């Protein structure tokens, strides 16, 4: 394309006849002792007066003769005499070969093939012997993908580690490639394969190159692997996941070893299909994947497939964090020039040793410079000891005389009955399924404590989140007691540690005492829903819920003294709620302490969930494949630290936005004040609303966790938050209060989504009664 501004400069003729690259990558050879070659060269020179001639043949001959006489140190005159004697009657201009490079217009005078190879590889001796050099010169190497593959190809060419190389890449050189591909800007827009072939030819014109500028395809695969003889080694460095699999299938069928550099932590992968014909692809890491899906995925959608290939547990924290930013602040995963150069050296070394029958293993190997060459780790102070659950003696000491009172007409439930009641109570929800409760029975009264070892951590400001769980457990216990015809009287006692003790006293159904306040039977029908209640994590299509049903759920929550419940059903309002919660979740996940607390609740395998019988079973979360991969990558603190440093983490907003956008309604329960008792009552209101929704087959899912940060901001004056987090939270708080027509400064906000969706495939597990119920 012409730039009109340049046309007025003194050299418009250059722009009027722009250079058009013909894609040639094979140099031409002219040997002047051959009459036909001599005539052809004369024609070439007459046709193009701009050809640049480079003749340093005498210097090459001097190197040749010195290398053949290593014990002699000749002076300049002696070297000149050696060259003259060696040439004899042959004119210097006629000796060797003239090599013409049409893409650069250069004509270079070189020693002919045998002598050229002898001199060029002289400094390899004896790390590569002459016999090994000659054997390597017969090898055929295929390279797929010419970003990392370009450096590998050049490194192998430097050592003359092959006689023939086949280069496959469909892409052209772009400016963004130049952070890792060693080439000049003059090559921008040229197919990568041709650019590499030309550089190899300019280094060593006697190496045979073949270019596949459409990349490796099903149509050209046989040619690539077999034309002119079967490949000896395949180097795979392509981005296409389908090609990664297909080329390995082909290599396995033909018994060709595959070598791959992974451009992270100096990771090198070797698959010796030549020695192990039954070896699974990529060491079995992808056996669980449906590879038929991976042909046309976006970079972000590729992540769940790439992770097993890379080795989820072994890739660097920076690469994990970078992959979380794909589609956010990055368009694709990063590669560094230094890593590419090191990878080129590693692959070239391994391919040479495979070719020479000096290395026979398959496997994945690491040459991690950041681990091997690094500063000593900083001294880290041991963490504060974690709080422990109460002992029976400690629980007894916490009980005041009022809590231990035994009232007239109070009955002594049998131990089996107590266990039945607590079993129902333990089915209550709690943040992260932490089950933050301990129960103590003295044979008459039953006491409920907040387990100090099961606090929700950073978001559990003044234990209010744990107390919400106690309120939900209380609701279940009362409903169960009524179902077996017991009346219940409840006494609550706040502790100085911002915790709570709840005392339950039981009476027969016929007991009538005006001095006692018994729990209302108005919602007793909900007891049937206790064992059916689930967290509605399935994200389906939005379907409307009748206003009558929403009113019933709202009324159930508001039946608890002080509770206020509001619903959003308009799409615009729900989208704004989704945006707010998404941003809140990002803040939570990027906060060091809050992220650590979240990770403590996650159970990444079903076996782990069965072992602990608490936390969130990852398999029950309704996540897309890419979301699953993203959450797994976010497990390590180093990944989160990188995202914080980069001001990234937008990926954490998207899941909650998707979840809430698909809801039928979004509800919020608020208490008029903040504190222990309001939180306890809020938990009862939440469970009463949840059981009502369950009774009508409506899926219910709390999404409050990140909102609990508001308590720390408003009532804790932002303790533990930095200025940026405080500012973001303050802005989001204003938005959510306005959205739900609330009053600033109220108590905990318990947010949940309602949907008409399928039931989940399993329930969150519960700890054994023996772990939570103690008797004296």
SSE inventory with pairings:
Layout: H1 12-16, E1 28-30, H2 35-47, E2 52-55, H3 57-68, H4 76-87, E3 97-101, E4 106-110, H5 113-120, H6 130-136, E5 140-144, H7 148-159, E6 164-168, H8 192-203, E7 208-212, H9 221-226, E8 233-236, H10 241-254, E9 258-261, E10 267-271, H11 299-310, H12 317-324, H13 337-355, E11 363-366, H14 369-372, H15 392-398, H16 401-404, H17 415-425, E12 437-441, E13 446-450, H18 464-483, E14 486-494, E15 500-508, H19 547-558, E16 564-568, H20 571-590, H21 592-601, E17 602-603, H22 606-612, E18 616-617, H23 625-633, H24 637-646, H25 651-661, E19 665-670, H26 676-695, E20 699-702, H27 709-714, H28 723-739, E21 749-755, H29 769-772, E22 773-775
Parallel strand pairs: 2-4, 5-6, 5-8, 6-7, 8-9, 12-22, 17-18
Antiparallel strand pairs: 1-3, 3-4, 9-10, 10-11, 12-13, 13-15, 14-15, 16-19, 19-21, 20-21
Helix pairs in contact: 3-4, 3-5, 7-8, 7-13, 11-23, 12-24, 17-18, 18-26, 19-26, 20-25, 20-28
List key phrases describing it.
single chain; 776 residues; alpha/beta; seven-stranded mixed beta sheet; five-stranded mixed beta sheet; 29 helices; 22 strands; elongated
Structure description:
With 776 residues, the protein is an alpha/beta fold. It contains 29 helices and 22 strands. The strands form five sheets. The protein has a seven-stranded mixed beta sheet, with helices on both faces. Strands 14-15-13-12-22 form a five-stranded mixed beta sheet, with helices on both faces. Helix 7 crosses helix 13 (337-355). The radius of gyration is 37 Å and the shape is elongated. The mean pLDDT is 92.
């Amino acid at each position: 394309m012409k730039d009109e501004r340049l046309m007025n400069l003194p050299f418009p003729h250059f722009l009027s006849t722009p250079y058009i690259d013909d894609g040639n990558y094979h140099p031409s050879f002219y040997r002047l002792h051959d009459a036909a070659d001599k005539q052809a060269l004369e024609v070439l020179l007459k046709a193009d007066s701009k050809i640049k001639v480079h003749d340093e043949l005498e210097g090459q001959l001097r190197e040749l003769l010195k290398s053949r006489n290593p014990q002699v140190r000749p002076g300049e005159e002696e070297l000149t005499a050696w060259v003259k004697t060696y040439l004899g009657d042959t004119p210097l201009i006629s000796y060797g070969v003239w090599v013409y490079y049409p893409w650069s217009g250069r004509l270079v005078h070189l020693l002919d093939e045998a002598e050229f190879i002898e001199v060029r590889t002289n400094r390899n001796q004896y790390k590569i012997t002459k016999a090994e050099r000659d054997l390597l010169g017969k090898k055929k190497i295929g390279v797929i993908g010419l970003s990392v593959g370009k450096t590998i190809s050049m490194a192998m060419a430097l050592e003359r580690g092959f006689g023939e190389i086949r280069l496959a890449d469909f892409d052209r050189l772009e400016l963004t490639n130049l952070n890792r591909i060693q080439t000049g800007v003059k090559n921008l827009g040229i197919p990568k394969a041709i650019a590499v072939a030309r550089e190899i030819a300019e280094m060593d014109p006697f190496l045979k190159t073949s270019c596949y500028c459409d990349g490796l395809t099903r149509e050209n695969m046989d040619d690539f692997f077999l034309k002119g003889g079967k490949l000896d080694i395949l180097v795979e460095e392509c981005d296409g996941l389908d090609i990664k699999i297909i080329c390995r299938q082909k290599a396995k069928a033909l018994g060709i070893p595959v070598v791959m550099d992974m451009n992270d932590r100096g990771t090198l992968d070797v698959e010796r299909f030549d020695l192990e014909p039954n070896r699974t692809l990529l060491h079995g890491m992808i056996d669980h994947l449906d590879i038929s899906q991976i042909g046309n995925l976006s970079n972000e959608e590729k992540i769940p497939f790439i992770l097993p290939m890379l080795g989820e547990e072994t890739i660097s924290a920076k690469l994990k964090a970078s992959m979380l930013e794909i589609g956010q602040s990055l368009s694709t995963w990063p590669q560094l020039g230094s890593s590419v150069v090191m990878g080129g050296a590693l692959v070239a070394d391994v391919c040479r040793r495979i070719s020479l029958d000096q290395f026979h293993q398959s496997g994945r190997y690491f040459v991690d410079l950041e681990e091997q060459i690094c500063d000593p780790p900083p001294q880290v102070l041991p963490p504060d000891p974690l709080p422990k659950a109460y002992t029976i003696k400690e629980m007894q000491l916490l009980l005041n005389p009022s809590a231990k009172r035994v009232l007239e007409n109070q009955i002594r439930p049998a131990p089996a009955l107590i266990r039945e009641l607590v079993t129902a109570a333990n089915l209550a929800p709690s943040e992260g399924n932490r089950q933050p409760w301990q129960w103590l029975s003295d044979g008459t009264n039953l006491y409920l404590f907040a387990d100090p070892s099961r606090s929700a951590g950073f978001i559990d400001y003044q234990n209010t989140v744990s107390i919400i769980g106690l309120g939900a457990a209380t609701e279940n216990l009362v409903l169960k007691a009524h179902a077996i015809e017991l009346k219940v009287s409840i006494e609550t006692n706040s502790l100085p540690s911002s915790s709570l003790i709840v005392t339950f006293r039981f009476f027969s159904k016929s007991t009538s005492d005006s001095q006692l306040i018994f729990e209302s039977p108005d919602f007793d029908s909900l007891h049937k829903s206790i064992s059916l209640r689930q967290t509605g994590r399935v994200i389906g299509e939005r379907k409307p819920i009748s206003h009558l049903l929403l009113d019933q759920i709202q009324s159930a929550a508001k039946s608890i003294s002080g509770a206020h419940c509001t619903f959003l059903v308009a799409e615009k309002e729900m989208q704004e709620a989704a945006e707010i919660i998404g941003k809140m979740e990002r803040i939570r996940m990027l906060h060091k302490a809050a992220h650590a607390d979240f990770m403590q609740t996650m159970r990444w395998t079903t076996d782990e969930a069965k072992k602990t019988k608490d936390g969130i079973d990852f398999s029950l979360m309704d996540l897309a494949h890419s979301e699953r991969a993203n959450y797994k990558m976010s497990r390590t603190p180093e990944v989160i630290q990188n995202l914080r440093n980069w001001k990234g983490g937008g990926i954490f907003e998207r899941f909650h936005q998707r979840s809430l956008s698909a809801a039928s309604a979004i509800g919020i329960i608020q208490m008029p004040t903040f504190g222990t008792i309001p939180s306890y009552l809020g938990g009862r209101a939440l469970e009463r609303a949840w059981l009502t929704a369950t009774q009508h087959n409506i899926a219910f899912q709390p999404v409050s966790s990140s909102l609990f940060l508001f308590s720390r901001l408003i009532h804790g004056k932002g303790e533990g938050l930095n200025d940026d987090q405080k500012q973001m939270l303050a802005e989001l708080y204003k938005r959510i209060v306005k959205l739900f027509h609330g009053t600033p400064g109220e108590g905990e906000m318990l947010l949940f989504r309602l949907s008409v969706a399928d039931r989940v495939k399993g329930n969150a597990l519960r700890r054994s009664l023996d772990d939570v119920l103690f008797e004296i």
